[in-house]
Amino acid sequence: MPSVVNPRMIAAVAAGKATAGASRLLGRGGGSSLPGVVARRIDPDVLNSLTVGQGVPVVAVTGSNGKTTTARFLAAFLRAEGVTVAQNSAGANLLQGLTSLAVGTANLRGRMPDGVMVAEIDEGALRLAAPEVAPKALVVTNVFRDQLDRFGEIYAVAGVIDKVAQGLADDAVLVVNADDPMVADLAPARTGRRLTFGLDIRRDLDHLTSAADSIRCPRCRHDLHYSQVYLSHLGDYRCPGCGFERPPLDVAVTSIDVDGLRGTRCTLRTPAGELELSIPQAGVHIAYNAAAAVTGVLALDVSLEHGRDALSDLRPAFGRLEIIDADDREIVLSFAKNPTSFNATLHTLAGAGEPRHLLVAVSNTRVDGEDFGWLWDVDFEGAIGRLLDVTVTGLRADELATRLKYAGLDTSRMTVVDDLATALNEALAATAAGDRLVVLAGYTPTIQLRELMQRRGWVGRYWAT
Known about the structure:
By secondary structure, the protein is α/β, with parallel strands linked by helices. The protein has 2 domains: 56-83 and 120-310, Mur-like, catalytic domain (UDP-N-acetylmuramoyl-L-alanine:D-glutamate ligase); 322-464, Protein-Tyrosine Phosphatase, Chain A. 34% of the residues lie in helices and 20% in strands. It has 16 helices and 17 strands. The protein is globular, with a radius of gyration of 22 Å.
């Protein structure tokens, strides 16, 4: 705790809290970003003062995919062990969102409670956020191609994370996905503590395609040899050129059983012993998220005594294969933002014989990214045979419709609708009572579609999930 009261910080906290309250009261949002903007206008150092200034340990979770779910799992594991956790669970992961989190956690005197802050941090914002929160642990999930017009190619993203990893304090812990070659090779000269996670399963769960992003050695650029492929370019690899290979795993997923869309059972080998998890969320990527979260807990030297039950009732974050009761139909809402997230979602859906009725929406807003050339690396071809009808919408509905046509979709089964509300109505009308509509959407359409569902009473506010 600081020994001297900082009036400017206290004013910033008070203003941020007032902004959050007004935002919720007026129905303008969950107060996950704007309070941080207001607080930083009053005191640009407020985030640093509330975290580093008060000795609050921060676990930063970053990477291309899986940040939100990994952070939710990590927070759940910590809470199961009695740790007080502050978390940006709505996914507001830019600097203003992190500031809103800290401001919302502090009391009116600017005092933070004892506990841990679990902060999902956008990989593009990491270089700015890390100096302000000085992470006690940095968890890196993966690096995939994502929003090229914003981030640049994957080597640029890895380079940013690498610089932050190299600059971590000596007593901080770097947690990396060993199955991702570029992530496994982050900050190789760093002498601080390092923990790895990945899958140790002696069979392929995926296969390498033209959409795989990182199949060359990060050191000598020779093509990697994979003994197992688990998800896109994630797997057990070795470079025949220089000998670089997947490092030993501190936390390893040794078995996975995905039960349709109902859940995932997996076994993890950890330094503390074997951990069996039953998670009500589906997919191989869920096992990766769980392994990353467990490793993050170990980085804090917190036990996993109650880990078995920590995730048993944890609902998905909004849009992460979220199952929604829509009167007499069921909607599966899936947020997908890049080739890997689309393909992982389609692979999980295929295990349940889906999609059959599909609403798919992409938009080229500043938040979503403007480059949609990556749509040609989505394996829509693998889903075409199951599709009975498809409704296409969003600001890039024309490009998406063209992609589906070239994937082999009979255009008589496809309807292109510009307006999202109309598209949702038409997609539901094409779905018989008691049947299931799958919605695949980018970030902005996911928010907009979910708000339509919220107004119909099917879901709560997205920031409350």
